[in-house]
Amino acid sequence: DTEVTQTPKHLVMGMTNKKSLKCEQHMGHRAMYWYKQKAKKPPELMFVYSYEKLSINESVPSRFSPECPNSSLLNLHLHALQPEDSALYLCASSQVRAGGADSYTFGSGTRLTVV
Amino acid sequence: AQSVAQPEDQVNVAEGNPLTVKCTYSVSGNPYLFWYVQYPNRGLQFLLKYITGDNLVKGSYGFEAEFNKSQTSFHLKKPSALVSDSALYFCAAPFTGTASKLTFGTGTRLQVTL
Description:
The structure holds two protein chains of two kinds.
Chain A: E1 4-7, E2 10-13, E3 18-25, E4 31-37, E5 44-50, E6 53-57, E7 64-70, E8 73-79, E9 87-94, E10 105-106, E11 110-114
Chain B: E1 3-5, E2 10-14, E3 19-21, E4 24-26, E5 33-38, E6 44-50, E7 56-58, E8 64-68, E9 73-78, E10 87-95, E11 101-104, E12 108-113
């Protein structure tokens, strides 16, 4: 299995809703990432997990809450989002190598719309 | 500070012609450089990477990239473009620390026409 699977593919939520994005990989990768991508812009890093521990939080608002229950799963819990949070949310995974030399495998993303 | 830059927002090329998508870098130490491609409403797909060794790196779908240390460039190339190559291309480099994080250039939209 050489894929990163993200669900759902599309999500529409109200500003008072609570929802979760899910990401799964079975490649044995021990680093997992959440990125946010606005239209026609590069992906922006949100969180990095290394060996199931949060290692980087790029000053993301607390309405985004990541969770890594095991080495294959990564969740992003969403609560009280704003319309400007509408974007494509990408999950990625990689091996953990010195110097960050390993390539990332990306999922197809969740298209989130906040209304 | 480490960064990559893509000076062109869009590149237009006719099918069958060679294509080049430009990337320059500012990285301390030995650079690790990547190219990714993104098709509409999809995630990013890995094309190729440079770590050390040969300056000409071959990747997926017939793409290659040339690492040039003196010009601090890592341009993506393909000898003969296809309409299906039309997509958004990102150059990237990792910032290393306790965990690596991949940071992307601004992206270049490649449009290949018949």
